[in-house]
Amino acid sequence: MHNNVDNKVVRDFGSEWGFYKQQDNDEEFRKMYNEYFKLFPWEKIPKEASGFDMGCGSGRWAKFVAPNVKRLTCIDPSPKALKSARINLREFQNINFECGTTESCSLKNNSQDFGYSLGVLHHIPNTKKALKDCVAKLKPGAPMLLYLYFNFENKNFIYKYLWFCSDLTRKIICKLPFFLKITITSLIATFVYLPLAKFSLILNKLKINTKNLPLSEYRNKSYYVMLTDSLDRFGTRLEKRFSKNDIYELTKYAGLENVKVSDRPPYWNAIGYKSHKS
Predict the structure, then answer these.
(1) Chain mean pLDDT for the chain
(2) Residue 215's pLDDT band (boundaries 50, 70, 90)?
(3) If we measure between CA atoms, which residue out of 140, 123, 94 comes closest to residue 11?
(4) Are the CB atoms for 152 and 206 separated by under 8 Å?
(5) Which are the contacts of 219, defined by CB distance < 8 A and separation ≥ 6?
(6) What element of type H or E holds 256?
(7) How high is the pLDDT of residue 2?
(8) Is 127 helix (H, G, I), strand (E, B) or coil?
(9) Model confidence band, residue 165 (pLDDT cutoffs 50, 70, 90)
(10) Phi and psi of 108, rounded to 5°?
(11) How far apart are CA 100 and CA 81, in angstroms?
């Protein structure tokens, strides 16, 4: 491992993807994939394209990307995560699996037609450098799709306060043994995520705006996704959050241009293109 990686975070996510293998949920994952990839310029990606999934985890997004390209490299620093990804993606012959990081992966600079990293770089010590390392692998003009946690700048005070309280809880839970994390985060999913999500669903059907209601984005998601995301949220030791302006600054530093940040959830979802000057 190189310097820009937290080995405890890698271990924790390896345990997560080893436990929640993300199998047999294709219909729901396709809907989520469509949300994350809504900005992705598929019309500009040739069938002969080669690209990468940086921090592939269980491979849930790669399953929908691989049929559209010639070669996809799934990279993750966790052997456990890659084991789940290999199982989930066993039907594809055009995927390479590599245990590596943004610093150590074997892809050559200026070699890739596209790249994406969703929900990963905010768990890395130096997010700015990690993104720059990713962009370096792209050919000039190639797109990079990104998802980073937002800092709630578009939410009200109550929403931010509730998140602050939950973050104090995360800082305790994340240090517990894995079996305790699973137990506690499952209880959170059952008694916090599920009721609030269903409450939002009811309000939504009554045409009441639920934008500022915590966890309203889960109103149409399954209990399994809530279990996974509860562990993902409360089980991680390292979490960063960014404003919309932060995204523009990060992408500019990394060498991306023509950057667009979506105004719709998930926040922040962004696309940029490697500058020909990089």
Answers:
(1) 94
(2) very high
(3) 123
(4) no
(5) 197, 198, 200, 201, 204, 210
(6) strand 256-261
(7) 62
(8) helix
(9) very high
(10) -80, 150
(11) 12
Q: Measure Cα distances from 184 to 75, 161, 188, 190, 221 in Å.
A: 29, 21, 6, 10, 20
Which of 152, 225, 160, 150 is closest to 189 using CA atoms?
225
User: Considering all CA atoms of the chain, what is the largest pairwise distance in Å, rounded to the nearest integer?
Assistant: 53
CA–CA separation, 52 and 142 (whole Å): 12
Burial environment of residue 264 by CB neighbours within 10 A (0 to 12, 13 to 18, 19 or more): exposed
Nearest to 71 by CA among 43, 108, 112: 112
Count of helix runs (H) and strand runs (E) in the chain: 10, 7
Q: Which residue has the tokens 């990686």?
A: 5
Residues 250, 100, 54, CA angle at the centre, nearest 5°? 45
Going by C-beta distance under 8 Å and a sequence separation of 6 or more, which residues neighbour residue 224? 20, 25
- Are 115 and 144 in contact by the 8 Å Cβ rule? The answer is yes
The residue with tokens 């809880």 is 169
CA 102 to chain centre: 15
**Measured distance CA(137)–CA(26) in Å, rounded:** 29
Token pair of 70 as six digits: 């010639």
Residue count (the chain): 278
Q: CB 181: neighbour CB atoms within 10 A? A: 22
